[in-house]
Amino acid sequence: MEDAMEAAIEFFNLPNEEKMLWFSDDVHKPIRYGTSLNHAIDQVYCWRDFIKHYSHPLSDWIHLWPSNPPSYREKMGNYAKAIQVLQKQLMEVLFESLGLNPSYLEEEIKQGVQLLAVNCYPACPEPGLTLGIPPHSDFGSLTILLQSRRGLEFKDKSNNWVRVPFVEGALVVQLGDQMEVLSNGLCKSVIHRAIVNEKEKRLSIASLHSFPMDTKVGPAPNLVDEENPKSYSEFSFKEFLDFISNNDISKGRFVDTLKVPKP
Ligand SMILES: O=C(O)CCC(=O)C(=O)O
Ligand SMILES: [Fe+2]
């Protein structure tokens, strides 16, 4: 975790020209550097720079990652691999807690997508006027987040923003839209945002896990019956990408477009 954070710090300390080599507005690119949320359509920019890259299976992607700073691939690669193992274990436990077989969708989880979003929120002279990342929920099954200091907030059941404490050496685990759909609404994907601060830049590394690009995820058949009718339609990661390239997700969540009206 320390190595990954170090690699992230070194990357964002590179001169702009070097980071701009990776710049792209195209959300389908396997690696891209950018700012705000979706720079092409955001009306107000957020106080964030990021580099995002696919990470699993590592050998398919690592050669596309930045080769500067020189230790980036090794340090971030080791982190990505360890987190991939952790997410598989967490998914098994989650399925068990839902009364499903722990090995439910085992192959899909093994072959799933891992996208690392490495975020940098510079110190901001007017932190009350902007956000690091606006309210959203993550599209995937699980997000495992490492942060360098406090800044993450989530929305509770009464619609209040709650600060996630910073705990040295701890990871934050969040449920995403695919878990909400798969659990037929028993789990809810968490709405979260990142605020910025005046004093110090903040870094976070979000490992976004999801089922394979073209796999349609729908409510688990064992969680659907007469009393609990199917509440969501199926979707794939690819459909989500198409949605975010055309929509401002701070205005409406993708998962809400999947809700099946109650009879
Ligand atoms: O920086 C954070 O704490 C949150 C990042 C995040 O929500 C994301 O990358 O999806
Ligand atoms: Fe997020």
Keywords:
globular; 6-stranded antiparallel β-sheet; alpha+beta; binds fe (ii) ion; 10 strands; 263 residues; Jelly Rolls; 4-stranded antiparallel β-sheet
Explain what you see.
The protein is an alpha+beta fold and 263 residues long. The protein has one domain (2-251): B-lactam Antibiotic, Isopenicillin N Synthase, Chain (Jelly Rolls, Sandwich). Helix content is 25%, strand content 20%. The chain is built from seven helices and ten strands. The protein has a six-stranded antiparallel sheet with strand order 1-2-3-10-5-8. Strand 6 and strand 7 (161-163) form a beta hairpin. Helix 1 packs across helix 4 (72-97). The mean pLDDT is 93. Bound molecules: 2-oxoglutaric acid (AKG) and fe (ii) ion. The site of fe (ii) ion has 5 residues, from loops.
Strand coverage percent: 15-25%
Q: What name does CATH use for the topology?
A: Jelly Rolls
Bound molecules: 2-oxoglutaric acid, fe (ii) ion
Low-pLDDT segments: none
* Average pLDDT: 93
What is the overall silhouette? globular
CATH architecture: Sandwich
Characterize the largest beta sheet: strand count, sense, and whether it forms a barrel.
6 strands, antiparallel
Instruction: Provide the number of structural domains.
Output: 1
| Straight-line N-to-C gap | 48 Å
